[in-house]
Amino acid sequence: MKFLSVLLLSEYILEGWTTTLPERFGMQAIIALYADHATHEQFHSEFKADMDLERLTSGKFDTNFLVCQLACVALNLLRLIGQHTLHGPDAPLRHEAKRRRIKTVIQEMMFKAARLIRHAGRLALGLGANDRGFVVFERHYGLLDTA
């Protein structure tokens, strides 16, 4: 009997959305506002996962607020480094992209094998000359040094 009801009765799928936006926004405007939602979610995921902020350090709001503020500064600095170092002609490319995730910037530009060299009363940072990102790192550091 159930088999016959499946053949005789149509199946309808209804999709709908609700919003709290004012009525002055039309349907197309709301869809356009929501179109870039996935990019927003990706940035939020980067902030939480790549900056290791899934679980905040304290149960106190003031401490967590300070941690989030410092993480924002670090995130912005890493994004700046990513924009200046990962898109040049000598950049260590994995594949063509418009931007790099923070995790990639950390892996490619921050995690460097280096040694601190003390010579002639000065300290120098010795980076591996065979490192793919060394030239890019040196160029970016030179830009920051002149600023």
**What order do the SSEs take from the amino end to the carboxyl end, as H and E?**
HHHHHEEH
Q: What profile does the largest beta sheet have?
A: 2 strands, antiparallel
Shape: elongated
Q: Could you estimate the helical fraction of the residues in percent?
A: 40-55%
Give start-end ranges of low-pLDDT stretches: none
Q: What is the count of helical runs?
A: 6
Give the neighbour order of strands across the main sheet: 1-2
Mean pLDDT: 80
Terminal-residue CA separation:
80 Å
- Please give the number of β-strands: 2
SS content category: mainly alpha
Rg, nearest Å: 25 Å
Instruction: Give the strand content.
Output: 5-15%
Key traits:
single chain; 147 residues; mainly alpha; two-stranded antiparallel sheet; elongated
Describe the SSE topology.
Blueprint: H1 2-8, H2 27-34, H3 37-50, H4 61-85, H5 102-110, E1 114-119, E2 122-127, H6 134-146
Antiparallel strand pairs: 1-2
Helix pairs in contact: 4-5
What does this structure look like?
The chain is mainly α and 147 residues long. The protein has a domain at 55-146. Helices cover 52% and strands 8% of the residues. It has six helices and two strands, in the order H-H-H-H-H-E-E-H. The protein has a two-stranded antiparallel sheet with strand order 1-2. A hairpin with a 2-residue loop joins strand 1 and strand 2 (122-127). Helix 4 packs across helix 5 (102-110). The radius of gyration is 25 Å and the shape is elongated. It starts with a helix and ends with a helix. The mean pLDDT is 80.
